[in-house]
């Protein structure tokens, strides 16, 4: 069977690379940052297939072109399919159907959607991860401008407002189906991943905010901003004002509240409880929203 | 192998029900659910003889399509009556939404039984029956979205050839699904299962189908068949990626899945 392996694997590598590489040729720009930066658990199957290394394979100048530099891993192909699927979310929702349509645009069979969980979890997590990456890049660029002296350093409250607004604006094209997405993210099997993504995004924002004030401690900062983000997101889903101006006004007020809170001595303890209550309330509201959308 | 199936063709379904106490229907339902086909999917069901998988596929796609149409109508609430009636008319002709299933079997008798069943149950559109050998399929490359083989692969002499053929006829992105008896690792269940297989099944074969030998062959072929991990390796050798399996009933049956990527 050792001989058999040798006979088959060059064949397999060629066969496989013929398909995968072709796919990667069609879309040259591959946002590798999105696949390697934010880790989330993929859908747990009974027995994990052999794990492919994430990111590009090590390139080596092999003979016969068996392992070439732009050989794409299954992981990368999956990301590509999910990205393509986003285009179909406004019409089909966060579903296996959207993924199937996405696969079709890449020249793959609709059956490729079978690689993913049928409730659309991976699609949503992929989207959230992508948005977080975009936000990080945006904040990184702004920081560079400040360091180069080309821009003023924003005061903390302005910084937080702009960061949250920028991040939430990414939801606008999908806002109609977003309540559905949030309710799926709250499912028990998704909570570890979605919570992880949320907290790393919040931490990211604080990191770039570069807040040196000693009024907040680290946990409070995280909790406060998480609360602001979640409640603003909820408001946004029910907002029908032009360009969501009511949402941004709400955001402004919440951030102002948080800044004022810094002066209170007992905010450290009550924040924890308040955030938990806020999240519970958020969960109930989202369930209602999702129910609302279904009834319609 | 051919003669075995010639003699069992007519009693095939009845024997399946009695051997597995009807659970085989659940296994096949699970297979199609796992497939989760969307309308427009083209399925090749190999060794599909009497059409069980094909019929389930058609039912599934039909109900998905109905739900799609309902949702579409819900969104078009401002259409005039004229437009609504037009959309009904054009969608009625596509109740399957371009989905198709080709049932391929090496045995004429099995196909005949399948066609009769289809007629009897009222399945007509999107269904075709082809005589063919799994080791050398009479189809062009890159033709099908999904390839299924339910309780058929253990009867193939050269499984590796069948797997390679499956890879060939599938479109890029296509899915390979195999439903087959496999190995039970639990020792207690394994003993009960062996008892049942060797003592009860051939007797049932004799009583219901008048054929002890064929059913003894069946039971022995199940024992000889490679276990889950080995089959998974064989599927990977044929070129499939993301190969995985799901045990049903603790391993009495397993569904293997792979993608042509």
Automatic annotation (TrEMBL), chain A:
<comment type="subunit">
    <text>Homodimer. Heterodimer; two heterodimers of COQ7:COQ9 come together on the same side of the lipid pseudo-bilayer and form a curved tetramer with a hydrophobic surface suitable for membrane interaction. These two tetramers assemble into a soluble octamer with a pseudo-bilayer of lipids captured within. Interacts with COQ7; this interaction allows ubiquinone (CoQ) isoprene intermediates presentation to COQ7 and facilitates the COQ7-mediated hydroxylase step.</text>
</comment>
<dbReference type="GO" id="GO:0005743">
    <property type="term" value="C:mitochondrial inner membrane"/>
</dbReference>
<keyword id="KW-0496">Mitochondrion</keyword>
<comment type="similarity">
    <text>Belongs to the COQ9 family.</text>
</comment>
<comment type="function">
    <text>Membrane-associated protein that warps the membrane surface to access and bind aromatic isoprenes with high specificity, including ubiquinone (CoQ) isoprene intermediates and presents them directly to Coq7, therefore facilitating the Coq7-mediated hydroxylase step. Participates in the biosynthesis of coenzyme Q, also named ubiquinone, an essential lipid-soluble electron transporter for aerobic cellular respiration.</text>
</comment>
<dbReference type="GO" id="GO:0006744">
    <property type="term" value="P:ubiquinone biosynthetic process"/>
</dbReference>
<dbReference type="InterPro" id="IPR013718">
    <property type="entry name" value="COQ9_C"/>
</dbReference>
<keyword id="KW-0831">Ubiquinone biosynthesis</keyword>
<feature type="region of interest" description="Disordered">
    <location>
        <begin position="23"/>
        <end position="76"/>
    </location>
</feature>
<keyword id="KW-0446">Lipid-binding</keyword>
<dbReference type="Pfam" id="PF21392">
    <property type="entry name" value="COQ9_N"/>
</dbReference>
<feature type="compositionally biased region" description="Polar residues">
    <location>
        <begin position="33"/>
        <end position="48"/>
    </location>
</feature>
<keyword id="KW-0809">Transit peptide</keyword>
<dbReference type="InterPro" id="IPR048674">
    <property type="entry name" value="COQ9_HTH"/>
</dbReference>
<protein>
    <recommendedName>
        <fullName>Ubiquinone biosynthesis protein</fullName>
    </recommendedName>
</protein>
<comment type="pathway">
    <text>Cofactor biosynthesis; ubiquinone biosynthesis.</text>
</comment>
<dbReference type="InterPro" id="IPR012762">
    <property type="entry name" value="Ubiq_biosynth_COQ9"/>
</dbReference>
<dbReference type="GO" id="GO:0008289">
    <property type="term" value="F:lipid binding"/>
</dbReference>
<dbReference type="Pfam" id="PF08511">
    <property type="entry name" value="COQ9"/>
</dbReference>
<feature type="domain" description="COQ9 C-terminal">
    <location>
        <begin position="191"/>
        <end position="262"/>
    </location>
</feature>
<feature type="domain" description="Ubiquinone biosynthesis protein COQ9 HTH">
    <location>
        <begin position="74"/>
        <end position="104"/>
    </location>
</feature>
Automatic annotation (TrEMBL), chain B:
<comment type="function">
    <text>Methyltransferase required for the conversion of 2-decaprenyl-6-methoxy-1,4-benzoquinol (DDMQH2) to 2-decaprenyl-3-methyl-6-methoxy-1,4-benzoquinol (DMQH2).</text>
</comment>
<dbReference type="InterPro" id="IPR023576">
    <property type="entry name" value="UbiE/COQ5_MeTrFase_CS"/>
</dbReference>
<dbReference type="GO" id="GO:0032259">
    <property type="term" value="P:methylation"/>
</dbReference>
<dbReference type="InterPro" id="IPR029063">
    <property type="entry name" value="SAM-dependent_MTases_sf"/>
</dbReference>
<dbReference type="GO" id="GO:0008425">
    <property type="term" value="F:2-methoxy-6-polyprenyl-1,4-benzoquinol methyltransferase activity"/>
</dbReference>
<keyword id="KW-0831">Ubiquinone biosynthesis</keyword>
<protein>
    <recommendedName>
        <fullName>2-methoxy-6-polyprenyl-1,4-benzoquinol methylase, mitochondrial</fullName>
    </recommendedName>
</protein>
<keyword id="KW-0489">Methyltransferase</keyword>
<dbReference type="Pfam" id="PF01209">
    <property type="entry name" value="Ubie_methyltran"/>
</dbReference>
<keyword id="KW-0808">Transferase</keyword>
<comment type="subunit">
    <text>Component of a multi-subunit COQ enzyme complex, composed of at least COQ3, COQ4, COQ5, COQ6, COQ7 and COQ9. Interacts with PYURF; the interaction is direct, stabilizes COQ5 protein and associates PYURF with COQ enzyme complex.</text>
</comment>
<keyword id="KW-0949">S-adenosyl-L-methionine</keyword>
<dbReference type="InterPro" id="IPR004033">
    <property type="entry name" value="UbiE/COQ5_MeTrFase"/>
</dbReference>
């Amino acid at each position: 069977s050792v001989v058999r392996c040798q006979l088959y694997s060059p064949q397999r590598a060629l066969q496989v690379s013929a398909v995968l590489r072709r796919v990667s040729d069609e879309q040259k720009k591959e946002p590798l940052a999105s696949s390697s930066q934010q880790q989330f658990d993929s859908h747990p199957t009974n027995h994990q297939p052999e794990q492919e290394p994430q990111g590009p394979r090590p390139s080596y100048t092999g003979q016969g072109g068996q392992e070439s530099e732009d050989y794409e891993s299954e992981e990368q192909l999956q990301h590509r399919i999910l990205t393509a699927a986003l285009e179909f979310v406004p019409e089909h929702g966060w579903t296996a159907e959207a993924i199937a349509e996405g696969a079709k645009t890449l020249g793959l069979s609709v059956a490729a959607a079978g690689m993913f969980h049928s409730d659309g979890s991976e699609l949503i997590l992929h989207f959230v991860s992508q948005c977080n990456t975009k936000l990080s890049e945006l904040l990184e660029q702004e920081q560079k401008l400040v360091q180069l002296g080309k821009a003023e350093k924003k005061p903390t409250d302005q910084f937080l407002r702009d960061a949250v607004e920028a991040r939430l604006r990414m939801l606008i094209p999908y806002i109609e189906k977003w309540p559905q997405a949030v309710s799926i993210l709250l499912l028990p099997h998704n909570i570890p991943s979605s919570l992880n993504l949320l907290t790393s995004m919040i931490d990211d924002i604080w990191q770039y905010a570069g807040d040196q004030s000693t009024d907040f401690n680290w946990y409070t900062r995280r909790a406060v901003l998480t609360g602001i983000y979640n409640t603003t997101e909820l408001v946004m889903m029910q907002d029908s004002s032009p360009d969501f101006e009511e949402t941004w006004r709400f955001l402004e007020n919440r951030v102002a509240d948080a800044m004022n809170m810094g002066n209170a001595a007992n905010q450290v303890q009550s924040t924890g409880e308040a955030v938990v209550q806020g999240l519970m309330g958020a969960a109930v509201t989202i369930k209602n929203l999702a129910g609302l959308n279904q009834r319609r | 192998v051919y003669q075995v199936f010639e003699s069992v063709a007519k009693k095939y379904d009845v024997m399946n029900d009695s051997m597995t106490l009807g659970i085989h229907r659940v296994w096949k339902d699970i297979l199609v659910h796992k497939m989760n086909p969307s309308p427009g999917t083209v399925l090749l069901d190999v060794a599909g003889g009497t059409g069980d998988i094909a019929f389930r596929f058609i039912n599934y796609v039909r109900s998905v399509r109905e739900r799609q149409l309902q949702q579409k109508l819900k969104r078009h609430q401002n259409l005039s009556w004229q437009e609504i009636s037009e959309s009904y008319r054009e969608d009625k002709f596509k109740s399957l939404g371009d989905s198709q299933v080709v049932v391929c079997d090496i045995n004429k008798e099995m196909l005949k039984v399948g066609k009769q069943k289809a007629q009897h149950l009222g399945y007509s559109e999107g269904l075709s029956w082809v005589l063919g050998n799994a080791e050398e399929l009479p189809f062009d490359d890159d033709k099908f979205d999904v390839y299924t083989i339910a309780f058929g692969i253990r009867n193939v002499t050269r499984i590796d050839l069948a797997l390679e053929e499956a890879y060939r006829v599938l479109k890029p992105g296509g899915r390979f699904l195999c439903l087959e008896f496999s190995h039970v690792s639990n020792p207690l269940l394994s003993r009960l299962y062996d008892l049942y297989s060797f003592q009860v099944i051939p007797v049932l074969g004799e009583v219901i189908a008048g054929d002890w030998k064929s059913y003894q062959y069946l039971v022995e072929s199940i024992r000889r068949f490679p276990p889950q991990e080995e089959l998974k390796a064989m599927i990977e050798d044929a070129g499939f990626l993301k190969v995985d399996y799901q045990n049903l009933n603790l391993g009495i049956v397993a569904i293997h899945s792979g993608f042509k990527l």
